[in-house]
Design goal:
endopeptidase fold (from Nostoc punctiforme), 201 residues, 15% strand, alpha+beta, 4 helices
């Protein structure tokens, strides 16, 4: 039987909504990011991180980073182009990259961490601060080995579920305590350079 899940309301936690609706679809960015990640989770792409000549893997395959760009696509952002531009503008921050390749750079957790550390709101990694974990947040694990999106579902203790792809059967699960957390971010496009906001089209 599936485990019973809970929501922010069950713990008296206010759900945060972004003031931004980047793609003008009537849904705020945080919710769009959540729903985009959940869409990928329900699709359950086979775990496969092979290089793609056009950058984007087909919908039936993917890895953890593909959950993230697909989530951002649902909010109207082209994360591939945004990361590529950031590498061009701030190459020193990505000094580990020997040869820039926009087809793969946005699918590396380390690169996404560098991007979000600069361009998103940095939040607590302490999981006991339940109210700081909100749907649509980005969470990075195991020293940049894994990444996921925070769900709007919580376990009976109030810990939020994580939407991620590590090849596991259930892509939205009670995972937060199972791995070391080394990054927690919330993307607010009102706080970053306009030139870095590239629409999906």
């Amino acid at each position: 039987l599936p485990k019973k899940t809970y929501s922010n309301k069950d713990f008296g936690i206010e759900t945060l909504h972004s003031s931004i609706d980047f793609n003008n679809n009537g849904i705020d960015d945080y919710t769009d990011i959540l729903l985009g990640a959940r869409k990928d989770a329900k699709n359950r792409p086979k775990y496969n991180g092979e290089y793609q000549d056009n950058g984007f893997p087909p919908e039936n395959i993917g890895v953890c980073t593909d959950v993230v760009w697909r989530a951002f696509k649902n909010a109207g952002y082209n994360l591939r182009e945004m990361v590529d531009l950031d590498i061009k503008l701030r190459g020193e921050a990505y000094s580990h990259i020997k040869r820039q390749d926009k087809n793969i750079d946005f699918r590396r957790v380390k690169n996404l961490h560098i991007f979000f550390k600069e361009h998103a709101i940095c939040l607590a990694t302490d999981i006991t601060k339940l109210e700081e974990w909100q749907p649509g947040d980005i969470v990075i694990f195991n020293n940049d080995k894994h990444i996921g999106i925070i769900s709007d579902k919580r376990n009976r203790y109030g810990l939020p579920y994580v939407i991620h792809n590590g090849g596991q059967p259930n892509r939205e699960e009670d995972y937060l305590k199972k791995a070391f957390i080394n990054g927690h971010y919330r993307f607010d496009s009102s706080k970053i350079l306009k030139e870095l906001l590239i629409e999906w089209n």
